[in-house]
Amino acid sequence: MSSILTNTSAMVALQTLNSINDNLTKTQAEISTGKTIESAKDNAAIWAISKTMESDVAGFQAISDSLALGESTITVARSATETVTDLLTQIKGKVVAAQEQNVDREKIQTDIEALTGQVTSIVEAAQFNGLNLLKGTEDVNILSSLDRQGNGVVNASNITVNRQDLSTSAGVNGVGTGSSLSGQIVNADVAEPDITNDANEAIVTLGSGSWTAGQTASITVAGQTVTYTAATGGEDQDAMAAGLSTALQALDLDGIVVDGSTAGTVSISSTRAFEEVSISTATDANTNQITDLNGASGLTDTSGDIAQRAEQIDFTTAATPQEGNSYQASVGGTAYFYTAGKGESFADVARGLKTAVDSAALEGVTTQVSIDSTTGQASLKIDNNSDTDLSIALAAADGGTASGGLFGLDSIDVTTNESANAALGNIETLINTSIDSAAALGSAQGRIETQSSFIGKLTDSLKSGIGTMVDANMEEASTRLQALQVQQQLGVQSLSIANQAPQSILSLFR
């Protein structure tokens, strides 16, 4: 049936042509934009995922900038620290040269002060965009990543860079009561209210009665053994003591004084500042024995150690100092303090107190830090070789401001024998501090470089993933465009033919 009101063929042709035009418009849009999914109406789920990933890409690009800024800041600090290490090494050379007494120490001191000023200048200038990693103790966080969880929550990750304080600041002494710190200074060997140049003594007492010919008595002091044999006819204990005393005196041991003037005894005195002196006795096991060995703590009847002359401050191994904890040693009525920084140990505290006391250049006062190889206990030893007794007292407090990592550098003095000797140990500590700082900064820089490289690769991977989802396949789009153009032409012709069909009805009315 033909109808002049309804042209079904034209309707079908028109629908087909509209569909072809829609596909052609979409294909042309893909070619012009390069994307197969341009908006949410194209594919809502894929579009949403791509936009989330694009936001992550933008975030990682900002992170890359943050890492670049952090790396530059650390590079400046590391280079400065390495330069400081070189300058401290030069200062050490000057200090070593000053150990000789026939050099011009005043000129050497001038050179040391110039190098010290250069160190301070470098530390002050080691900043990048206003951030200096060589001053203060507060950590610096560098944004390193965005971590997206499955539930959509995003957390920021940071690389924490520890500041390496290389200032020469003395810090601020604590103001708190320090009651919680009372057990941290063991000070078991600070037995006297004063430190003096008095020798520590051991007295060997020989048995009374006569010693028959050929009987022997031996005394070992600091690893050196002397033996006295009773002469023909025998000898009494006084003669045996005198013989042993004479033999010990002949050894001429450094810091050891031997006295046999008291009947039947040998007095052995030690003025060695930082060294215990081992002592032991023996006989040939005949009836007359060495009956006693006393006069100093730690001695038994036959063996023991003569204590060092220095007073020793021991620090606990059961805890660690916290930033702001101050430890104080008062010598001769003047207080010398060191305030711990972040992550420091009691070995650092002991070295800091040593530097503080050495900086005062007290006449006859020398110091030494020892670390027990077994327990790790840190100790500070203070010796007084002057004719004046000096009082000693200890204290601890909290709430202070940390001393600088190069505390004591600006007080190095080589103009006297005592100060030159003290400077040698102190400069070694400062060099180790600087080396540790450079190593820590170098490690942090390496970590940032690795993270920066990873972020670059991750960003590229995300971009590639987004492209896979939303980018148009240009080869496919080009082929489809040509096909749709042909279909469009055919559709137009089909519609034209369908529109001509009603004209055939006219022939029925002719």
TrEMBL record:
Q: Could you tell me which residue ranges the Flagellin C-terminal domain spans? A: 425-509
> Any idea which GO molecular function terms this record carries?
structural molecule activity
Keyword flag Secreted? yes
Q: Where in the cell is it found?
A: Secreted; Bacterial flagellum
Superkingdom as given in the UniProt entry = Bacteria
Start and end residues of each Flagellin N-terminal domain: 4-137
Q: Does the keyword Secreted apply?
A: yes
Which key words tag this protein in UniProt?
Bacterial flagellum, Cell projection, Cilium, Flagellum, Secreted
Q: What is its main location?
A: secreted
Which SUPFAM superfamilies does this chain map to? Answer: Phase 1 flagellin
Q: Name one GO cellular component term.
A: bacterial-type flagellum
Q: Write down the Pfam families for this protein, in alphabetical order.
A: Flagellin_C, Flagellin_N
The family assignment reads:
Belongs to the bacterial flagellin family.
Describe its function.
Flagellin is the subunit protein which polymerizes to form the filaments of bacterial flagella.
Put simply, this protein is called: Flagellin
Q: State the organism named in the record.
A: Halocynthiibacter styelae
What lineage does the source organism belong to?
Bacteria, Pseudomonadati, Pseudomonadota, Alphaproteobacteria, Rhodobacterales
